C-alpha cells in the first residue's frame, strides 16, 4: 500500500513538473515584432535636354600689363630727388625717378662740346675764302651753339667739295662723338616712361649705383593680365576677345575680363596651352590671385548634374514607378562639382541628391517641391 502511494506521488510530481516547464517556456517565447517597411523620400528632377554652356575654370595671379624693371646703365651716387624712391610712391609720365651724380661725366661732355666748337671756329677763315657760299650757314651754326644745351645738328652739306672739306677736318666725327656722350649723359637721369607707381625699390638715396644694377620695378596700375594654363583639348575653343568672368578667392568680388592673347604653342612638359586674360579695375593689385571662368562652347542636347550623382561605370540612378533603376550615360565634360551628360531621354526622372546605400530596385518616395531645399532637407531628417 505504501509503495503504491509513493508511486502515485512520483508520477504526479513528474507530470506537474512537465506542465510547469511548458508554462515557463511559453512565457519566455516572445513574438518578434514584424519590422515596418521603410520607404526613403528622395529629391527628384525631370530631365529636359538643352544647350549647356561649358565653362572652363582657371586661376592665376595678376601682373601689370605695363611694367618696367629699372636697371642702371651708368655708375654713380644716387642723389636725392623731389620724391623719395620708395615702394608705393607715384610718379607722373616724364617725372624723374632716379638722379645719379653725373658731375664728373658732365665735365667731360662739356669738354668734348668745346673741342667741337673750337674745331668749327678754326675752319671759318678757310670757309670765307674757299667756300663763301656756305660761310653764312656755318656762321649761323656757331652763333646758335650753346654749351649748356644739346648740340644742334650740323648744317646740311650741299656740295661734294664742302663735304670733303668738313669731313677732312674731323668735324663730323667730333660731332657724333659729342652726341654719343650726350646720350650717355641722359642715362644719369631715369624718367618715368608713363604715369604709375613704384612697386619695388632696391636702392636708397646716397647709395652707390653700379652699372647693370637693378634698381626697382615700376608699373601702371589699373590694367592687369592674368596668365592661365588650360588643357590642350581646349586649344580650339579659346578665342581672342572672349569675355571672362573672374572672382577673388573669397568669392566676394566679381570682375569682367577679356582674352587678349592665346599662345600659339603647347607646353611640351605639361601639355597645356597658355591664355592671357586682361582685366581693368582700380581696386585690383598686382599679385592678387583670381579665379576665372572661361566660356569654352555650348554642348547641344545635354544635361548638367552634380558629380556626386555619377556612379562608377558612367551610370546614374533614375526613378521608375517609385523604384530606383540604373541607366548608362555619356559624360562629355567634368568640372570640380558638375558633369555634363548626354544620352538621357527627355522626361526621365533622376535623383537630385544622392542617397546613402542606394541600389537598383530600392523602393523610394519621390519628392518634388518649390519650397526652399533647406526646409525640405529638415523634413527628411525628421
UniProtKB/TrEMBL annotation:
<protein>
    <submittedName>
        <fullName>HlyD family efflux transporter periplasmic adaptor subunit</fullName>
    </submittedName>
</protein>
<dbReference type="InterPro" id="IPR058625">
    <property type="entry name" value="MdtA-like_BSH"/>
</dbReference>
<feature type="domain" description="Multidrug resistance protein MdtA-like barrel-sandwich hybrid">
    <location>
        <begin position="67"/>
        <end position="215"/>
    </location>
</feature>
<dbReference type="Pfam" id="PF25917">
    <property type="entry name" value="BSH_RND"/>
</dbReference>
Amino acid at each position: 500500500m505504501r509503495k503504491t502511494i509513493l508511486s502515485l506521488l512520483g508520477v504526479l510530481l513528474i507530470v506537474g513538473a512537465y506542465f510547469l516547464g511548458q508554462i515557463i517556456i511559453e512565457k519566455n517565447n516572445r513574438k518578434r515584432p514584424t519590422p515596418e517597411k521603410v520607404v526613403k523620400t528622395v529629391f527628384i528632377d525631370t530631365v529636359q535636354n538643352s544647350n549647356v554652356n561649358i565653362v572652363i575654370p582657371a586661376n592665376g595671379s595678376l601682373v601689370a600689363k605695363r611694367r618696367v624693371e629699372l636697371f642702371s646703365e651708368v655708375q654713380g651716387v644716387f642723389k636725392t630727388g623731389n620724391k623719395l624712391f620708395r615702394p608705393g610712391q607715384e610718379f607722373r609720365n616724364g617725372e624723374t625717378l632716379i638722379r645719379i651724380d653725373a658731375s664728373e661725366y658732365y665735365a667731360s661732355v662739356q669738354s668734348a662740346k668745346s673741342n667741337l666748337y673750337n674745331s668749327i671756329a678754326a675752319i671759318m677763315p678757310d670757309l670765307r675764302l674757299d667756300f663763301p657760299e656756305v660761310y653764312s650757314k656755318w656762321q649761323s651754326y656757331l652763333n646758335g651753339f650753346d654749351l649748356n644745351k644739346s648740340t644742334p645738328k650740323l648744317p646740311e652739306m650741299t656740295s661734294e667739295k664742302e663735304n670733303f672739306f668738313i669731313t677732312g677736318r674731323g668735324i663730323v666725327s667730333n660731332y657724333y662723338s659729342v652726341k654719343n656722350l650726350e646720350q650717355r649723359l641722359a642715362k644719369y637721369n631715369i624718367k618715368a616712361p608713363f604715369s604709375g607707381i613704384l612697386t619695388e625699390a632696391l636702392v636708397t638715396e646716397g647709395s652707390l649705383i653700379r652699372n647693370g644694377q637693378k634698381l626697382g620695378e615700376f608699373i601702371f596700375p589699373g590694367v592687369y593680365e592674368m596668365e592661365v594654363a588650360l588643357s590642350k583639348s581646349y586649344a580650339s575653343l579659346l578665342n581672342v576677345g572672349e569675355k571672362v568672368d573672374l572672382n577673388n578667392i573669397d568669392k566676394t568680388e566679381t570682375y569682367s575680363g577679356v582674352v587678349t592673347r592665346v599662345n600659339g604653342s603647347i607646353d611640351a612638359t605639361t601639355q597645356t596651352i597658355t591664355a592671357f586674360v586682361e582685366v581693368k579695375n582700380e581696386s585690383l593689385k598686382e599679385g592678387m590671385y583670381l579665379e576665372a571662368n572661361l566660356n569654352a562652347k555650348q554642348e547641344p542636347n545635354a544635361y548638367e548634374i552634380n558629380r556626386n550623382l555619377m556612379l562608377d561605370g558612367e551610370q546614374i540612378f533614375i526613378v521608375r514607378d517609385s523604384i530606383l533603376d540604373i541607366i548608362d550615360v555619356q559624360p562629355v565634360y567634368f568640372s570640380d562639382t558638375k558633369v555634363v551628360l548626354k544620352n538621357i531621354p527627355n522626361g526621365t526622372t533622376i535623383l537630385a541628391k544622392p542617397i546613402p546605400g542606394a541600389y537598383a530596385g530600392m523602393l523610394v518616395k519621390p519628392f518634388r517641391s518649390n519650397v526652399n531645399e533647406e526646409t525640405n532637407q529638415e523634413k527628411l531628417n525628421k
